[in-house]
Design goal:
The complex is a heterodimer of chains A (about 170) and B (about 280). Chain A has about 170 residues and is mainly α. In chain A, about 55% of the residues lie in helices and about 0% in strands. Chain A has two domains: about 90 residues, Fumarate Reductase Iron-sulfur Protein, Chain B, domain 2, CATH 1.10.1060; about 70 residues, no CATH class. Chain B has two domains: about 120 residues, Glutathione S-transferase Yfyf (Class Pi), Chain A, domain 2 (Up-down Bundle), CATH 1.20.1050.140; about 140 residues, Rossmann fold. Chain B is globular. Classes of the chains: A mainly alpha (about 170), B alpha/beta (about 280). The interface between A and B is large, with 63 and 54 residues.
């Protein structure tokens, strides 16, 4: 059976995570470290130590904004941003509840919206997100304001070949 | 010159003024845009955060559609640009993945066209001298900081864009328009991206810091090339620190005397018109 470290390395497909020598440059430059349960360097250490439950159940993997500062500055080219993607995907595929549930609900609403029309229709996507998250009233005034300015339209152009788009979703389903 | 054009979803909606100003300045600079036929969403953060293959297949469908026109493709949205470049990077270096994605999309990927951002095309193909010659109303008194954010620059071997710690393309363009670009250290810091909907409080902290640092650099506005950065800066910054935010193309159109800017400025949440009126620019 593969260790957690091997599973993550397989998904990243680049420089193995054990090349990290814990200089913590990733964490020093991470703009979200202040809001993370474990900082990026600790996540790497925890993967090396096989702490799968703690890593996949942590809020950190959902707080990463994918700014790619970590991988850009890593002296060993460890792709930490892709590692965060891989951890999120592993967490979803294992059926664990996301610790930051609304972040995942947003991603699901966004993707469901693409599957609906091929292109994002922002007002409909926000309704999909709000129904899923139960966060019904935040940003309402802002949304109404944008609607009045003509920035949000319920009838935005869609992709014509929707079969092609739906096929992509069907064939990439894990 | 003629290029393929991928507007992406934002440029028809919350980034409407970016889409319209990109079209206006392209026309004025002699860049003909051919919109990719029947394009679909690039998948953005939500696809790569949850499903790697989906995150490559969605932009690949658009790249393959663009290849039919055999021209480089201009992608103004930084988020779309990053997803297009990332997809190309993986498709070019991983043959097994390329075959798999071709089956998923149902067409062959050739890989013969370049993905380019308008900042690059305007700086390197049009040229700053030509641009300065067309800037008939110099932006005197405007003191912007250039804000590049994340997705045009990182990771550098994928984006192949500009200096990834100290990019200068936008600074050059704004300088050619007569603006007094302020130096600052936050050009490439993150605005919080798509967390704006699900973790709003965190994004407020991030954009307030950017606004505070822009003020410390004695700027009177921020300039961006990304609809996500624009939305976060323009909508989420607290009232006591906020400054007007522009797309670089809006300022180009203003300086070039093109039709449209006043209508676009009305779409902003932070109204930039008092600043521009005070400086005699509108």
């Amino acid at each position: 059976m593969k260790t957690f470290l091997e599973e993550v390395n397989d998904m990243i497909g680049g420089v193995p995570i054990q090349r990290c020598y814990h200089c913590r440059k990733c964490t020093a430059g991470c703009p979200l470290a202040f809001a993370m349960e474990y900082n990026p360097n600790r996540i790497i250490k925890m993967i090396q130590m096989g702490m799968k439950e703690e890593v996949l159940g942590s809020s950190t993997i959902w707080m990463c904004a994918s700014c790619e500062t970590c991988v850009t500055r890593c002296p060993n080219q460890v792709d930490i941003a892709r590692m965060m993607d891989a951890l999120r995907q592993m967490s979803i595929e294992s059926g664990r509840p996301a610790k930051e549930a609304n972040v995942l609900k947003f991603h699901k609403a966004f993707l469901a919206n693409i599957r609906l029309g091929g292109r994002i229709n922002e007002p409909i996507m926000m309704v999909q997100y709000k129904l899923a998250s139960g966060d019904l009233f935040s940003d309402m005034a802002m949304g109404v304001g944008m609607f009045m300015k003509g920035k949000l339209s319920l009838l935005s152009p869609r992709t014509r070949d929707m079969k092609a788009v739906r096929d992509i979703f069907a064939k990439t389903k894990p | 010159m003629k290029v393929s054009y991928y507007p992406g979803c934002s440029l028809h909606a919350t980034g409407k003024e970016y889409g319209q100003s990109v079209r206006a300045v392209s026309k004025a600079l002699g860049i003909e845009l051919k919109e990719i036929d029947d394009w679909s969403c690039c998948g953005a953060t939500s696809a790569h955060s949850t499903n790697f293959k989906l995150s490559i297949a969605l932009p690949a469908r658009n790249l393959i559609a663009a290849e039919r026109d055999a021209m480089d493709v201009m992608v103004p949205c930084a988020a779309c640009f990053n997803r297009f470049k990332t997809a190309q990077h993986h498709l070019d270096k991983d043959k097994a993945l390329k075959s798999e994605i071709e089956v998923i999309v149902g067409a062959k990927y050739q890989g013969g066209i370049r993905v380019r951002h308008p900042l690059d095309i305007i700086s390197n193909d049009v040229g700053l001298d030509t641009l300065a010659g067309k800037a008939v109303h110099k932006l005197t008194g405007l003191k912007p900081v250039s804000y590049y954010g994340c997705l045009l620059l990182r990771p550098p071997e994928v984006c192949e864009f500009d200096d990834y710690e100290n990019p200068i393309l936008m600074d050059g363009i704004l300088g050619a328009l007569g603006a007094e670009v302020r130096p600052w250290s936050y050009k490439t810091d993150c605005c919080g991206g798509s967390l704006t909907i699900s973790k709003t409080g965190i994004v407020v902290k991030m954009v307030d810091r950017l606004m505070t640092m822009a003020r410390e650099a004695e700027a009177n506005c921020l300039v961006t090339a990304c609809p996500v950065c624009m939305a976060n800066l323009d909508m989420r910054a607290s009232e006591h620190v906020r400054l007007p935010v522009f797309y670089f193309t809006e300022l180009m159109a203003l300086a070039m005397g093109l039709d449209g800017p006043e209508g676009w400025f009305k779409l902003h949440n932070i109204d930039p018109r008092p600043l521009l009126t005070g400086l005699g620019l509108v």
